[in-house]
Amino acid sequence: VIWVESVPAGADPHSPGPPPRLAQKDQSFVPRVLPVAVGTAVEFPNLDAIFHNVFSLSPVKRFDLGKYPRGQSRRVTFDRPGLVNVYCEIHSDMEGFILILPNHAFTQPDEAGAFRLPPLPAGRYVIRMWHPDRPEIRREVTVPAGGSVTVDLES
Amino acid sequence: VRPALTLRTKIQLITVVPLVALALATLWTVHRTVMQQANARVRGDLQRASAVLENLLAVRARSLEAAGGVVVRDPRFFSVLTLPGPSVDPQIRATVAGVASDFNSVTHSDLFEVYGHDGTRLAVAGERAARREAVAPLVTRALAGKTVSGVVADEKTHAQVCVTPVRAGGRVVGALLLGADMGRELADQLRDLTKSEVTFLSGARARGTTIAPSTERDALIGSLPLARAAHGRVFEIHAPDHVYMALARTIPGTDPAAEQRYVMERALDVETAWLGEIRRHLALIGAGAMLLALAAGLLIATRITAPMRILVRGAEEMERGNYAYPLDIRTRDEIGYLAERFRDMRRHQQLYIGSLQEVARLRSEFISIASHELRTPITIIRGYQELMEQEVLGPLSPQQRHAITGIGRSLGTLTAIAEDATRLSMIENDQLQLRLEEADLPALLAEAVRTAAAAAGGRSVTIENRCPANLGIAYVDGGRLMQAVTNLLRNGIRFTPDGGRVTLDATRENEVLVITISDTGVGISEARRAQIEHGAIAQVATHHHSSDTLEFNSAGLGMGLSIARGVVGAHGGTLRIESEVERGTTITIRIPLDSATLTRAA
Fold first, then answer.
1. Closest to B493 (Cα-Cα) out of B557, B435, B536, B449
2. Is A90 in contact with B92 (Cβ distance < 8 A)?
3. Which single residue of B98, B248, B300, B596 could bond B263 by disulfide (Cβ 3.0 to 4.6 Å)?
4. In this structure, is the dihedral angle defined by the CA atoms of residues B395, B400, B402 and B403, taken in order, positive or negative?
């Protein structure tokens, strides 16, 4: 997940849509990493033919949705930013991450590693990148007015 | 007569037999003791092996119980049994199965089965599943709230199991069955631990065994009645390849009626293979000791018996007339003393025999001289007697003629005696020269009968000549042979009472002339016969020329037998006397007629 640490008020590129989903499919959470903005409600549908459970012991949001069969779904609203680790009580090797971000200026890279953040007003920003298996990267970027900037987070 | 069992053999037997017996007894004792020890050891080992097995089974049972206890207390586990919905719901079953296999990846149980609160089996995570009916009683008891252990045996499974109730919120929501196979793997493991063959039996079925050959397995199954009768004690299984000491017991924690047993076996012959090695060595040592004993016995026996053998040889030499055989015996024991006495006896014997020979020689010489010296006076008397009988010296009165005739007859007898004596001395001095010629045997024998009959005037003894007329011609000294037969016939007549019979018979048997002269006379006693049979003494015996008790018309000096023997001997033949006192005597002459013998005889 790549996001911008802080966005000027009013410049949050919010686009309304259906609530994001963290599904249980093939005994794993799909997607593995789900970035959402603060205050977003997330759906947890069970797409498997077995019971699953979704719970989190993370301080940002503690919840336990209980066990429910295929076709059922539960909804949780995350109102504080931070990282929430999601587990299934039945299947210990299932793990999901919900990254609750302060704004909507985030994105996820494609398979080639390319990403595109939503347009923001000119100014200085801090871009952060988080991956469950990699160290976090933090980079300052100056966005020129009416232009675009390319950041290489690998170097 | 040679001894049948020599002294040396006897001594050897005495020295060797006890040693051999001792060696055998030792071998036997060692073998028995070691066998007993080995047997006791195998029994002890089996008991210990049994303890190890039961211990291991107990440990396994406890670990099943412990694993079950841990699993059912895990919320991940018990919570899936609280899922809403009927137990037939495939989603619930799939969920439970997932959890079960997840847990079994930790417990690695051969049997891992999850039952719902209603007793339905929700999941099977182990390598195999037990038959429902086989585990149903255990599951029922577990659902009632008790942890139960036992053994499950069905067609595919033979396992120790532990069924633990699964509790959630204070009520039983299901049961967890954990099981550990009692099969080949466990048997192998136990064999490694106990060095015994291990077989798990369910009834008469071997469920896991370390015994590979099926024949040996069958022998075990066949011994089941023995196993039942042994009541947990050691018994023997006679299999085709081995004899086993075995111990069969009910698997702990099972109902004896269910016939769940384990059998531990040890092949006695394999266990005692080292004993065979020892036995071989002992046998070798024993054989060596025996050989040593034999050698030592031989040495001892030889040393002890050497002087005895010298004595025996000395006696044999003495029998042959050699009185000078050295008796070099210096031992100071009884044998030395015996040798000393033997030397004395030999000396006395030698002197005695020497004197006897001297007597015989003197007698023979005397007879020789006397008979020779008698010829001249006899000739002179014969001349005068003939002159007087022919009345050349004047006429004779009848009384005188009777006297002269009597003198003539007695002169004939005297001449015959002198001739016999001369002949006998010639025979004794080996001076007899045969004049071999072709002689007509029937005529020769007839002449002998005639002469003997003529000499027996006044005796009423029947003389029968049975010689066949076809006896033929033989190359012999006819005159002497006739004389010999005549003498024997006369002897026969002489010793046969009036009314008796003397028979002459002759045959040719394969170039051997056999002449028999038998009478029905007084016979000769055994003692006397032995005397007559033996040369030197017979000469003495000839003086007794008649029966000990009876004397019939004892004409002549009875030298006839000696002369006959001499003549026959000179022909290379033999003369044999068979006699029975009061029944008669038979003399058999056998003269070989083949040219070789004749040549030798000549």
1. B449
2. no
3. B248
4. negative
Contacts of B588 (CB under 8 A, 6+ apart): B514, B515, B516, B575, B576, B578
Task: Kindly report whether the peptide bond that precedes residue B225 is cis, defined as omega within 30 degrees of 0.
Answer: no
Instruction: DSSP letter for B116, please.
Output: E
Binary contact (A50, B85; C-beta < 8 A): no
- Residue B556 is predicted with a pLDDT of 43
- Reported ipTM: the value is 0.72
Please write the tens of the pLDDT for every residue from B15-37. Answer: 788 888 888 888 888 888 888 88
pLDDT beyond 90 at B144: yes
Pairing state between β B234-238 and B243-250: antiparallel
Q: Is the pLDDT of residue B535 over 70?
A: no
Chain A interface includes B102 (CB < 8 A): yes
B203-212 long-range contacts (CB < 8 A, ≥24 apart) are: B203/B153, B203/B259, B204/B259, B207/B153, B207/B158, B207/B182, B207/B183, B208/B158, B208/B181, B208/B182, B208/B183, B208/B184, B209/B184, B210/B184, B211/B265
> Residue B121: beta bridge partners?
B115
If phi over 0 gives left and psi between -120 and 50 gives alpha, with beta otherwise, what is residue A152?
Answer: beta
Among B79, B91, B99, the residue with its CB nearest the CB of A49 is B91
CA-to-CA distance for B236 and B230, rounded, in angstroms? 10
What is the rounded average pLDDT of the residues A148-152?
86
3-class secondary-structure state, position B261: strand
Partner-chain contact A27 B98, CB within 8 Å: yes
The number of angstroms, rounded, from the C-alpha of B178 to the middle of its chain's C-alpha atoms is 73
Residue B282 and residue B35 in contact, taking contact as beta carbons nearer than 8 Å: no
Residue of B nearest to A67 (CA): B83
Average per-residue pLDDT in chain B?
Answer: 84
pLDDT tens per residue, range B564-574: 888 888 888 88
Place of tokens 């009314």: B499
Whole-angstrom distance, CA of residue B181 vs CA of residue B153: 10
Q: How large is the average pLDDT for residues A81-105?
A: 90
Q: Whole-angstrom Cα distance, residue A54 to residue A48?
A: 13
Q: Which of B71, B76, B87 to mutate to test the interface with A (most CBs of A within 10 A)?
A: B76
Contact B216/B228 with Cβ under 8 angstroms? no
pTM for the full model? 0.55
Closest CA to B318 of B341, B358, B349: B349
Q: Note whether B123 contacts A: Cβ–Cβ < 8 A.
A: no
Please, which pLDDT band fits residue B541 given cuts at 50, 70 and 90?
very low
Strands of the sheet containing B260-267, edge to edge, are B205-209, B197-202, B260-267, B243-250, B234-238
DSSP class of A128: E
A:132-151 residues touching chain B, CB 8 A cutoff: none
The one-character DSSP state at B241 is S
- How far is B94 from chain A, CA to nearest CA, in Å? 6
CA-based nearest distance A155→chain B, Å: 42
Burial B433-445 (b: 16+ CB within 10 A, else e): ebebeebebbebb
Q: Does the pLDDT of residue B543 top 60, yes or no? A: no
Average pLDDT score over residue span A78-89: 92
